[in-house]
Design brief:
The chain is built from 18 helices and 29 strands. The protein has 4 domains: about 90 residues, no CATH class; about 200 residues, Rossmann fold; about 170 residues, P-loop containing nucleotide triphosphate hydrolases (Rossmann fold, 3-Layer(aba) Sandwich), CATH 3.40.50; about 90 residues, Alpha-Beta Plaits. The chain is an alpha/beta fold and about 650 residues long. The longest helix is centred in the last third of the chain and has 22 residues. A 7-stranded parallel sheet has the order 10-11-9-12-13-8-14, sandwiched between helices. Strands 15-25-24-16-23-22 form a 6-stranded parallel sheet, with helices on both faces.
Length: about 650
């Protein structure tokens, strides 16, 4: 055994370089340690052991006591990968994980598995749903595969298959992880999981209290909880003896972190499965083009068509403005038959960018280069990016004209106008302005499920897999704004969103989808066949975008525009130099201001890179980062290049 007297340590949660400390003899790689830094006691992780250093050190690093915490082997493995692949620091990476108390770590993985296998033998048979022959075929495919994409139409019964996969893992003495994109889905998923698996289920997301989180961790550590369901952060829990990971709605952008490290939880789940021999099942009615292509290539695709109950839906199109007479009449007719309606709009509140009819001036946020949204209830214009608000002006600040007009329609205004036209209807709003707590989320969904709401008006939150059998009509307004966005995934986002929203109707009985759009030809062609859309869209991406090419986006932000621009130009020069010197195969697609140039008071510039392999991109980026004295944001495999 080699003697190591020093270590490089990453302080957790700090954007800090690695620090060198003396260490005790029993210190090991990735141990959690306590360090003194500038008269403060911090927690860090040992990321490299050293025999000697060429400078003098006084500080002594103290190993965490037995009652403190440690990372599990799979957490260390995953942290290494995140730091390497996403070009993140160990400080940022390890801060993602919830460690486990040393006293709670079992003597061996075998002892835990043996105990849980014994526990599994004592479990009463789970009240599992009966599968159709096609669902059973999908289950068999998943059990025989390392990973699988369950490409199932909305209402085709994917959740029933998930239940059987989880039960299979538990019976073998293993545990299961069920990932969902957002906490808006947790009430229904929790209800369905607990109906089958009872107290073995634990729910994890950002909104539960610290006390509940600790209680859940204790139950997880002692084996009382064996099925964890939650948003992407659940992936970083101290999960032992996993046998099955399920990633529901795998297409959802919420799996991608919007802060450093900018990981994708779906991709991390696949990495864990590959490295630790855990089965991973991805599911979606509208899988991402990248996932679909990879599944086809690896013979890991199972197509589940139709609804489990055999119900049908029809697509209807209208180019008339929202809340025209025909739309109001259709909504009224559905509600008269004791059925319910869902109305989707792409933006919350009264997303109406005020502009002057005389001079054309638009009311923009002074901290962001975006139009502000009208919130009539607050009598305010609100920026949905930074939260800045101001009173709605009566006169144009540019020319002092009173002729202020607005564009678009949002959830609040649609609900208000619909209530004016049909005052007898009970209308609810489902957006982030109204659903501000987990209790409000549960209350609104329960009211709709109990048929106390006739029409539910909401944003993309409505598309998140909610299952209500009494919805007979979905109205989709403003989908053209999604389709016409300046982004290479605009077609995919718009089509996926339409099909997901449409999936809220026609689940047990026939339903209809009314789409307000001037692009009816596009939506009508693919609206009932998403796989046809994927095959068509694939041709638009060849040699340009994923899944054929890998992308990386570098962002530079500063309160002074000249600084952000000069930082971008400095990194651009380094990238051009290393490309030539090392003959790296990558392309600099563009270096320019972001589409939203000013955000939260800071100017933004981007460099977009493209290559056949992410390795060339990462090599060039790490070279540039090493040779500058400022930080910039790195996004490997960005979902948007705005």
């Amino acid at each position: 055994m080699q003697d190591f007297h020093f270590a490089l340590i990453a302080p957790l949660g700090l954007n800090s370089p690695l620090l060198t400390y003396k260490i005790p003899q029993d210190c090991k790689l990735y141990d959690i340690v306590e360090i003194d830094l500038k008269q403060k006691q911090l927690v860090g992780v040992v990321v490299k052991l050293l025999k000697e250093v060429d400078f003098k050190l006084q500080e002594k690093c103290k190993l965490a006591s037995k009652s403190e915490q440690n990372f599990l082997p799979f957490q260390k493995l995953l942290a290494e990968f995140i730091a390497s692949y996403y070009c993140a620091s160990f400080s940022q990476t390890f801060a993602l994980f919830t460690p486990q108390k040393s006293a709670q770590i079992p003597q061996s993985a075998q002892s835990l598995q043996s105990a849980q296998a014994k526990q599994s033998q004592q479990i009463q048979p789970f009240p599992l749903p009966t599968l159709s022959p096609k669902q059973q075929e999908a289950l068999n495919h998943a059990l025989d595969s390392q990973n699988m994409l369950l490409f199932g139409d909305t209402g085709s019964g994917k959740t029933e298959i998930y239940m059987h996969l989880i039960a299979h893992a538990l019976i073998l003495g293993k545990n299961a992880l069920f990932l969902m994109p957002e906490i808006a889905l947790t009430p229904q998923i929790e209800q369905r999981l607990k109906k089958v698996f009872g107290s073995l289920v634990g729910i994890w997301h950002s909104k539960i209290t610290r006390a509940k989180k600790q209680a859940l961790l204790d139950s997880l550590n002692n084996g009382e909880i064996r099925v964890i369901a939650g948003a992407r952060s659940a992936l970083f829990l101290p999960l032992q003896n996993l046998g099955q990971i399920i990633v529901d709605e795998e297409h959802d952008d919420a799996y991608k972190s919007q802060s450093t490290p900018r990981y994708n939880a779906r991709d991390l789940a696949l990495y864990i499965g590959k490295k630790t021999d855990i089965k991973v099942s991805l599911g979606s009615a509208t899988p991402s083009l990248s996932t679909y292509t990879n599944a086809l290539k690896n013979n890991a695709l199972f197509r589940l068509k139709g609804t489990h109950f055999g119900a049908s839906k029809s697509l209807l199109f209208s180019s008339e403005p929202p809340l025209c007479e025909s739309m109001i009449a259709r909504i009224a007719k559905v509600c008269e038959s004791q059925k319910q309606v869902i109305v989707f709009l792409p933006t919350r509140a009264h997303f109406k960018s005020l502009f002057c009819q005389d001079c054309g001036h638009k009311m923009q946020c002074k901290f962001c280069s975006v139009n502000m949204s009208v919130h009539l209830e607050k009598n305010a214009l609100v920026c949905h990016y930074c939260g800045f608000s101001q009173a709605i002006p009566k006169l144009c600040p540019q020319c002092e004209s009173p002729n202020l007009q607005s564009q678009r329609i949002g959830t609040q205004e649609f609900a208000k106008e619909l209530e004016s036209a049909l005052p007898h209807l009970r209308i609810g709003i489902f957006d982030r302005d109204h659903i501000t707590t987990h209790n409000k989320l549960n209350a609104t969904l329960k009211s709709f499920n109990d048929k106390k709401i006739d029409v539910l008006v909401g944003t993309q939150m409505l598309s998140k897999g909610h299952d209500y059998h009494n919805v007979a009509l979905c109205v989709v307004v403003g989908i053209d704004y999604v389709l016409n966005a300046i982004d290479y995934r605009a077609n995919e986002r718009a089509m996926s969103l339409l099909i997901q929203i449409a999936g809220r109707t026609g689940r047990k009985e026939a339903g209809a989808v009314l789409v307000q759009s001037v692009n009816s030809e596009f939506f009508e062609r693919f609206g009932l066949d998403y796989e046809l859309f994927l095959q068509d869209e694939l041709q638009n991406r060849v040699k340009i975008y994923p899944p054929f090419m890998r992308l990386a986006n570098l962002s530079f932000t500063h309160a002074k525009e000249s600084h952000a621009q000069s930082q971008m130009e400095c990194v651009l020069s380094l990238l051009q130099s290393v490309k030539k010197a090392q003959k790296l195969q990558f392309e600099i697609v563009g270096a320019k201001p972001s589409e939203i140039k000013l955000l939260k008071g800071k100017y933004r510039y981007n460099i977009l890179l493209r290559a056949d392999s992410s390795l060339a991109l990462r090599s060039a980026i790490l070279h540039a980062r090493k040779n500058v004295n400022f930080s910039f944001e790195i996004d490997i495999d960005p979902l948007s290049v705005l």
